[in-house]
Amino acid sequence: MLRNSVSIAALTTLITAAAVTPAYADGHAVTVELSLTDVSGIGAAVGTVALEDTEYGLLLTPDLVNLTPGAHGFHIHTNPDCGPAMKDGKIVPGLAAGGHFDPFNTGVHAGPYEDGHLGDLPPLFVDEDGTATLPVLAPRVEVSFLPGRSLMVHMHGDNFSDEPAPLGGGGPRLACGVIGE
Ligand SMILES: [Cu+2]
To answer: Which residues are within 5 Å of ligand 1 (an ion), measured at CB?
Structure first.
């Protein structure tokens, strides 16, 4: 009887510890500071997005202001640079960040739940007052993949397809932040 009681107590302790610290998530977290993109460099600061590993994937928790209301394409881009770059003779805000993070060279924009770009995230939702606080989850991504990349918010939404518009139809780059260690 005594032996059974001790075993149950030990088991309870083990289960509790496992629930608090999943073995497959290292608990790593980083905070990214975002700014509006600008033709002349980096624009005004608009807040932060916290990235953390959870047992369900990467949780991205925004605390952003001064954005346009509605759904916005939200992606990890390849380069740690949110500045402008030249394309077809024009200066394009945020273009220095390069394309969507695609370490397996799929060349396909398929959203967060298919095997396309690893950097495809669920859209960011901005409230009527221009703030974004609703977290999103990217199940294929973990924090350790991300230092040296950038986090991008596009002007328009994202249909997780290259049709009818490429890269989900997000269009121009609205806000961006470089992901540090
Ligand atoms: Cu993008």
So the answer is: 75, 152
